[in-house]
Design goal:
Length: 140
């Protein structure tokens, strides 16, 4: 018989750097999960992607066991790395912080494709282009 799901927790943690401090500890502790076991497993699974923010979806079961799935990094994080900038524009409609080529945009869209709500690569590109526009990045 399948285990009964108690809750699903979504967090964004830097790869290889999960620790019991906030936000991980309080989010998991209130559901009775072994925090150190999660941190150890997460750090092992994401060690190769150090320096990147990795979203994780933790499924907590009634018996206090858990499973987790890692996702691809957020589109904004990938765009910032591609451009080599610290953060996006304060006022995206008036300020431009950089330009990205259509080829680089397509590469990011391909990487994010499995986590996006898009059926074609063109639709995924439009989603990433919208994120870029809201950050003050022009697509050339």
């Amino acid at each position: 018989m399948a285990k009964k799901i108690k809750t699903v927790i979504k967090l964004q943690i830097e790869a290889g750097k999960a620790n019991p401090a906030p936000p991980v500890g309080p989010a998991l502790g209130q559901h009775g999960i072994n925090i150190m076991a999660f941190c150890k497993d997460y750090n092992e699974r994401t060690a190769s992607q150090a320096g990147t923010i990795i979203p994780v979806e933790i499924t907590v079961y009634e018996d206090r066991s858990f499973t987790f799935v890692t996702r691809t990094p957020p589109a904004a994080d990938l765009l910032k790395k591609a451009l080599g900038i610290e953060k996006g524009a304060h006022t995206a409609s008036r300020e431009v912080v950089g330009e990205i080529s259509a080829d680089k945009l397509r590469e990011i869209a391909r990487m994010k494709m499995k986590d996006l709500n898009a059926t074609t690569i063109e639709a995924a590109e439009r989603i990433i282009k919208g994120t870029a526009r809201s950050m003050g990045v022009e697509v050339k």
